[in-house]
Amino acid sequence: MSTSPDEPRPAPAPGAPAGQSPPEPVKAVPVRHPGRWIAAAVLVVLSAMFVHMLVTNPAFDWPFLFEQMFSSPVLVGVRTTVILAAVSMAIGVAIGIVVAVMRLSDNPVLVTVAWVYTWFFRAVPRIVLCVLFGNVAILYQTIEFGIPFDNYWLPLLGFSDGARFYSVPMETLLSPFVAAVIALSLSQGAYMAEIVRAGLLSVDKGQTEAAQALGMNQGLVLRRITLPQALRVIIPPTGNEATAIMKDTSLVSAIPLTTELFFQLQQIGARTFNLFPMLVAACLWYLAITSLMMVGQYYLERGFNRSSRSAASVRGAGQRA
User: Fold this and answer.
1) Which of 68, 154, 180, 191 is the 20 to 30 A CA-CA neighbour of 114?
2) Which residues form the ABC transmembrane type-1 domain (predicted)?
């Protein structure tokens, strides 16, 4: 490459020998990804095929589906499902907190009982628990309240009558709804116990020691110090568990709980000999309910994280001051 005498020569690159011209600039060529375009094209075609099936396949019977989807029995089933999930989740959270505290106790009896409870109810499938509690009346016809083992030791004292104060028929006490709540709550409590225990263990032990040094008892430390800080770890998986228990309410049709959503849709399909549209309606209802729950979970987590960051910034400003 030649240059005119009047044209300024380019400065040599640092470290290059004298009289050597600088290297030509590198021309960057973007890397092509044909596999991505092929995968995108395949997904677009599959999506078009799926939409075409939804529109053209007569088995969906969309007019019948939407007519029955908002019928009175189905709306009653939706209400029962939401109430069942809310009550079971609330009881499960309460059980989980108690069992988690028992697992972290220094008492070996409490630790053993909590471990056995968690092991059993996490190991047994929920549908098996629903069927089991739905048939508890096989064991006892009535539930009686009184002094334990009175039929063994009272005759030794010369008393012929038992010490039973109150009795209620099992069929009256254990309705299908109550059996469903018990099955789902006990199962949910085992999972929540592990979530709460993980949250409590995530809090620095120095927080507890400092609170105890101020004279707080264990219950006050748990309510004021440990549990509020553990919520940042507990809330996200708890939201997932709430969504899971909402879906698992469909299992109580095995008890059977006749006012539950999935049972109602199955009955309509069996009565009209058109089952498949009712199964699709069940999918749509569960999608709608769980989607609303996910939106609520998102805003709850965002609000909690914002408050946690604000508290952390305030603490940091106080320490700097």
Assistant:
1) 180
2) 78-297
